[in-house]
Amino acid sequence: MARIGVDVGGTNTDLVLECDKGIFFHKVPSTTKDQSIAVVEGVLQICDIAGVAKESVDVIAHGTTVATNITIEHNGAEVGMLTTRGFRDILHIGRHKRPHNFSLHFDVPWQSHPLVKRRNRIAITERILPPTGEVEVELAEAEVREACALFRRRGLRSICIGFMFSFLNSRHERRAREIVLEEIPDAYVSISSEVANVIREYERFSTVAMNAFVGPKSALYLRNLERKVSEAGIAAKLRVIQSNGGIATIDGCVKKPVGILMSGPAGGVLGALAEARLAGIDNILTIDIGGTSADISMVTGGRFRIKNARDTVVSGHAVMAPMIDLETIGAGGGSIAFIDTAGGFNVGPRSAGSEPGPACYGRGGTEPTVTDAQVVLGRMDADKFLGGDLPLDPALSEKAIREKIAEPLGLSVVEAALGIIRVVNNNMALTIRANSVARGYDPRDFSLMPFGGAGPFHGVALAELVAARDVIVPVSPGITAAMGLLGTDLQYEHTRSVITPLFTADQPALDRVNAVIDELSAAGRHELDNDGVAPESRVFEVVAEVRYHGQGFELRVPVIEGRLTRANKSAVIAAFHAMHVADYGYAFDDSLVELYNIRVIATARVPHLALPLVAPGQPDDLDRARLYERPTVFDDGSTHMTPRYDRRKLGIGTRVSGPAILVQHDSTTLLPPGYTAETLAHGSLKITRA
Amino acid sequence: MTATQKIDPITLQVIRGAIETIAEEMAHVLFRMSFSSIIRESEDLGAGLFDTDFNTLCESESTPMHIGSIPGYLRGIAETLDDGEWCEDDVVVHNHPYFGASHSPDLAIVIPIFHAGKLVGFSANTAHHIDIGAATPGLIIDVPDVYAEGMLFAGTKLYRKGKRNETIWSFIRRNSRASRQLVDDIEAQIASARLGVRRFKELLDRYSEDLVFSACNQLMDYSETMLRQRIAAIPDGEYRAEGWLDDDGRNRGQHLPVKVCVRVIGDRVEVDLTGSAPQTPTAYNVPFEGSTKVAAFAAFRKLLLDTATSETRVPSNQGSFRPISVIAPKGSIFNPEAPASAEARFTQCNFMIDLIIKAMAPVLPSEIIAGSSASISFASYAGVQPNGEYWVFLEVNEGAYGGRPRSDGPDAIDNLMANTRNNPIEDLAMHIPMICDRYELRDDVAPGAGRFRGGMGVVKAQRILTDGIITHESERHSNVPWGIFGGHEGAPGKCEIYNIETAEPPRQMHSKFHGLAVRRNDVMAYYSPCGGGFGNPLERDPQKVLEDVLDGFCSPENARDVYGVVLDLEAETLDLALTEALRLQLEGQLQRQSL
Questions:
Q1: Does B303 touch chain A (CB under 8 A)?
Q2: What sequence ranges are listed for the domain Hydantoinase B/oxoprolinase (chain B) (predicted)?
Q3: Which of A256, A334, A340, B468 stands the most exposed, by the fewest C-beta atoms within 10 Å?
Q4: What's the CA gap between A448 and A268, in Å, rounded?
C-alpha cells in the first residue's frame, strides 16, 4: 500500500510517495498545457523509483493550480446568468469601491474581465422577501425558458443562478435549475444557495459566477486526469486539495471547483504543519518564498487559520469559499531592486521571473534581483546551483548591482547587495507581523518556518526581525507543499446564514439554529457516506460565525458540543468576546452578540505522513558532511571563511555552529555567526541563537 | 522631537514600511470594530500618525476625502484644547468646522504620543458618524447656520491623563438620534488611535526618536520631490476651467459658479478659486482647511502620481501637499465665514477636481480624462421605531468616470474623492425597515460617446417601509459631464420619488433636498450621471461598439449614427467594409459642419 502527494507548480511537479519502505521524493517538469501529463508521468516514475507496483497505490492527493490559472488567464467558460429583475448588474457594480484611491487610469477587474458578460445576465421576474423568505412574486418560468433559448443560441453551456435573498429561501433557484436542465440537458449549472448559501448579494453572486466560470474546464481537467490515471493502470483513489486545507473527491470538486482556487498555496501551509508536527511544535509562522512572491501564513495550536470570508478575493473577484488564511506579497528571489527618480530605493514587487530571470542566469536579465544579491554576497555558490545543473555567472550579478544600485547611491557592491537583502527581508517581516503580532499573537511563542527553495536563506534574518522563538527548516524545503498533501483530511464544509441574537435567544430560537446544524451535518454525512468513510474516522465540527449586531465582520467561534443550548450559549458569547479582544483590543456588551452563520465541517481523519528517523548523530558527522569553504558575507556586513555542509550527512542531535551554510539539492540554509543548527529526529533543522 | 540624521535609503525604506503598516493597522481596527454601516461597510474613515508640527507622517489608504484632512483638525485643536496642554493618555474629540475640521459629522479622535516624557507626535483618525444631533437625522442642507449641525467639539477631552470624562460621554449619549452607534463607534476610534500610539512607541524604542523622525522628514521630502518633478515637467502658465453647481438647496434655479485657475510656476502649483460663488445661506459650503485644500491636493496626486501607472508608490504624507497652494477668498463657497453652516461640502469638492482635470487638458492630454459624474449621492433615511427610538441609515451612491485616453470610463463606481463600499442590499433589509427595489446600471440614457466612452451610471431605488424622513445631497441635475477631444457629453443625474401604492407619476426632485417627510412605501430612485466620452467616436474600435450594443451600453441607432458602425444584430456580428464606408461619410459630414 502506498500514498502519493503530487503538487503542480509553475515550473516543476513535485511528488512524494509514502510506503512501508519509506518516503521517496521526485520532481518532473510541469506540463503547462495539460497538467495531467506530468502528474501521471511523475506518478509512474516515482513508483519505479520506490519499487512500488503502481497497482498498490491507494491514494493520490493532488494540489492543482488549474482553477487558479483560469482566473489569471481569463479563459474560463462563457457563462449565462439568471438573476432577479431589477438587479441585473450586481456583478458589474461589485462593492462600488475603486482598487486605487489616487488614480485616473486604474483597472476595474470585475468590469474589464467580467465573470459573466452583461448580455448574458438575464433578469427574471421573481421576488423573495426578507426577513422571512416568503415568496412575494412567483418565479416567471416562461422567462427562464426564454433565457435558455438565448443561451442555446449563443452556445452557452455553463449557467449560474443567483436570486436576491435566496439564502432565506432557495426554492426559486432550485426550480430555475430544473428548467435549465430541461432546456439545456448538458448544462453545467451552479446555484448561489448551494455554492455559497450566505447573506450579501455581491459576494454570493460573484462566488456562484466564479464557480460557473472555472467549472467546466476544471471538471474537464479533473475527469481527464481521473481517466488517465485509471488507463495507466493505477488503481488509486484520486483526491484534490482544497483552499481550506481539506481534501475532496473528484466528484466534489467537479461540482464545486470554487473550493480549489487556492489549492496550490494551501499545500505549502499543510506541508509546514506536517513538518511542525514531526518537530513537535504547535505554533509556527510560515513563509514560502518562491521566485516572484512569498506566501505568508500562521499555524497556532497545531491548526492553520481560515481567512475571514470578507477578504477572500481571487483575481479581483470576491469568492466566498473558505480558504487558508495566507497573504501573498511580491517578494522573492527574482524581485528586482531599483532606484526611482526621486532617489528612493525599492525592491519588487516587479520580478524578473524565470525568463529572463536574475542577471546571473545569463538569459539577458540586466536588472539586479535578490538572487543576484545572494550570489554577490557569496551565499549561493555559482557552480553548485541546483547541484550544478544550472551554473550561474556571478560577474553578471556584480555588474547589475554595481551599475543599477551601488554607483547611483555611492555604495560598494557588497553594501548595495546587503541593502537589497535588508529591504526584501523587511517587506516580508512586515507582512508576517501584520498576520501575527497585529492579531494579538506574541511572536516569541512561535517558530519561524521558511521554505520554498529560497526560504532558508532568509529564515534567521526574518526570525530576528519578527522576534520569533527560533527557526525550523523543513526536511525538504523545496517540496514541502507536496509533503503536505499526504497529511490532510478529507473535508466538506456547509454554511448557512441564520441570524440570531444570542444573548436573548430562547428555546425556539436555539431550536431553529440546531435544525440548521442538523441539516448541514446531514449534508456532510451524506458526502462522507458517498466516499465510503468509516463512521469511526468521521469528525463533525460546528462553527458559529458571530459578530456584534451592526458590525460587518464575523469571527469564527467553535461550538464545542456541536449544538447550541441555553447552557453553552454563554460560553460561545464569552469565547467571541475573547476573540474580539485578541483581534481588536476591545469587547462590547453581551446584548449585542449576534450569530450570523452556522458552518459545519465534516472531516474524515487520514493517517498523517510519517517520515522515518534519520541516523543518530556521530562524533564525525561534521567532518563527513563538510564539503568546502568559501568567503561569505552575512547580514551584519562581516565576511567569514564559511564552511559548506551536506545536510543529508547530519545525524540526529548533531549541531553545526555558524558561520556555516547547509546545502541540499534544491535549497540552501544560511547560518550566521552566533547561531547553531541542530538536526532533529526526522531531519529538520532547529536554529537557535547560540 | 529631534531629527538630525541623514538616513541611508535602505533604512529609510525599512522605516517607511513600518509606519505605513501602523496606519493600515489603525484603519483596519477601526472599520472592523465599528457598528454604523457608513464606517464598517463604506469605510468612510482615515487614520494616521502626525508630528508635533502637525505634518502627516503616514496615513491609511481608506477614503481620499479623509486623507490629508487631519492636520487641519490638529491646528484647530491647538487653538482650543481643554486645559491648554496635552498630557499623556489624553483622548481628544474634535469636529468644529471653523477650527479645521473637514465637516462636523467627521469626528476626529486624537491621542498624543509621549516618548521619554516628552510630546513627540499624535495618533489620530477621523470617521463619519451617522448622527451628531443636527437639525434633522443624518444629513443637513437647508439650515441657517453652523449651530444647526449638532454637537460641535473643539479640543474636547474624552479622557484626561487616562481618566474617562464621564460628563462629556453622558452629554454625547443624550444628544444623538443614534447614540448607541455614536458612542460605540467612538470607542472603535479610540481603540484604533491607542494602537497607533503603542506601535509608534515600539518603533521609537527600537530605532531611537532621532532616527525615526529623521527618516520621516526624509520621506516627506521624497514625496515632495516626486510631485515637484512631475509639476516641473508641465509648461508654466495659467490653465482655467469653469462650470456651475445646480443650486444651494434652498434657492432653486440659482446656479452657483465654480471657477478654477491652475497656475503652474516652476515646480509648484497654485489653485485659485477666485470668482467662484459667494458663500451660501445654507449648509452647502466647504470648510477651507479641512476640505477645500484636501480636495486640491488629491486632484494633483491623481493626475501626477497615478498609483495604477507608476512603478513606485509615493508615501502618503505631508510632502505631497507642499508643492500645492490653494487660494479661495474669504466669504466664498470654498472658504466660508462663521456662522455659515458647512456640512454639505462633498459635491463642490468633487466638481472642483473635475474642473482641475479639465483645465489641464491642453498640457496633459494623455493624463486627463473626460468629465466624470463628479458629484456624489449622499442620502440619509430615518424613521422613528415604535419604542420611540430613531433608526438612521446613511448611504453613499456611486457615479461614473469620464472616458480616458487609453480606456473607457469605469461604470457605476465611486468617483474622484469618494471611495466607499456600498452597503449590501440584503444586509440592509435584514436590519432596517427599508428594501431595495432596483439596483443596476441605468439604461434610460447613454454614456458619453467617444473613442473611449464614458462610464454608465446606476439607478438605485430604495423603498422605506415606515413613515420617515429623507435628506439627499447630490449634484449635476443640470450640468452634464463634458466630453473631451471630440468625445460627446454624458448624461445628467436625476432623482425621483413615488409611492408604489398609488398611480401618481413620480415627483422629479431637486439634486439637494432636506428633511423631506415620506410615507410608508415611498421610493426614492436615484440615477447617477454618466461620464463624457474621450476622443472622436468614429475612431472607436468597431468590435468594442458591437460589444457595447450586445451589452446594452449603446443602442443600435447610436452605433450607426454616432459611431458609424454597421452591425448584423441577428448574427451578432460586425460588417467592417460597410463600417469603413459609413465612417468616411460621417467624417465628411462632420468636416462640412465644422467649416
A1: yes
A2: 8-537
A3: A340
A4: 14
- The alpha carbon of residue B335 is apart from the nearest alpha carbon of chain A, in Å, by 25
A433 neighbourhood in chain B, CB within 8 Å: 21
Q: Closest CB to A98: pick one of B29, B413, B431.
A: B413
Give A133 to chain B, closest Cα distance, Å: 11
Q: Which residue of A lies nearest to B308 if distances are taken between CA atoms?
A: A106
Nearest to B25 among A88, A167, A438 (CB): A438
**Cell numbers at residue A373, please?**
544579491
**Interface contact flag, A586 B12, Cβ < 8 Å:** no
pLDDT higher than threshold 80 for residue A385: no
Asked if the model's pLDDT at residue B137 lies above 80, the reply is yes
- CATH number listed for the domain at residues A76-204: 3.40.50
CB-based contacts of B472, cutoff 8 Å, min separation 6 = B139, B377, B378, B379, B380, B495, B509, B511, B512, B513, B516, B524, B526
Stronger pLDDT, A280 or B38, i.e. the higher one: A280
Q: Of B286, B284, B292, B287, give the one whose Cα is nearest residue B251.
A: B284
The distance of A112 to chain B (nearest Cα, Å) reads 9
| Beta-sheet pairing, A490-501 with A593-604 | antiparallel
Q: Which of A203-212, B42-51, B319-328 has the lowest mean pLDDT?
A: B42-51
The answer to whether the peptide bond before residue A349 is cis (omega within 30 degrees of 0) is yes
Rounded to whole angstroms, how far apart are CA atoms B63 and B316?
12
Burial B125-156 (b: 16+ CB within 10 A, else e): bbbbbbbbbbbbbbbbbbbeebebbbbbbbbb
Question: Is residue A169's pLDDT more than 90?
Answer: yes
Contacts of A90 in chain B (CB under 8 A): 439-440
Specify the domain boundaries for CATH 3.40.50 within chain A.
76-204
For residue A434, which residues of chain B lie inside 8 Å, CB to CB?
Answer: 21, 24-25
Whole-angstrom distance, CA of residue A48 vs CA of residue A28: 14
Q: Nearest Cα to B373, choosing from B514, B479, B446, B444?
A: B479
pLDDT value of position A455: 93
B507, three cell numbers? 415627483
For B73, list phi and psi in degrees, rounded to 5: -60, -45
| Residues of chain A above pLDDT 70, percent | 98
Is B427 close to A200, i.e. CB distance below 8 A? yes
CA distance A688 to A678: 8
Q: What is the pLDDT of residues A616-634, one digit of tens each?
A: 999 999 999 999 999 999 9
Label residue A690 exposed, middle or buried (CB < 10 Å: 0-12, 13-18, 19+): exposed
Question: Which residues of chain A does CATH 3.30.1490 include?
Answer: 490-604
Q: Which letter does DSSP use for residue B506 in this model?
A: P
The CA distance from B11 to B403, in Å, is 42
CATH of A490-604, one of 3.40.50, 3.30.1490, 3.30.870, 2.30.29: 3.30.1490
**Rounded Cα distance, A496 and A512, in Å:** 12
What is the count of residue pairs from A and B with beta carbons less than 8 Å apart?
A: 225
DSSP A175-188: HHHHHHHHHSTT-E
Measured in angstroms, the CA of A146 and the nearest CA of chain B are apart by 16
Chain A neighbours among B 24-83 (CB < 8 Å)? 24-25, 28-29, 31-37, 40-41, 43, 61-64, 67
Q: Please give the span between the terminal C-alpha atoms of chain A, in angstroms, as a whole number.
A: 44
Domain ranges for chain B: 9-222, 369-535, 538-594
Q: What is the pLDDT of residues A431-479, one digit of tens each?
A: 888 877 766 678 889 999 999 888 999 999 999 998 899 999 999 898 8
Per-residue model confidence as pLDDT tens digits over B267-314: 999 999 999 999 999 999 999 999 999 999 999 999 999 988 887 788
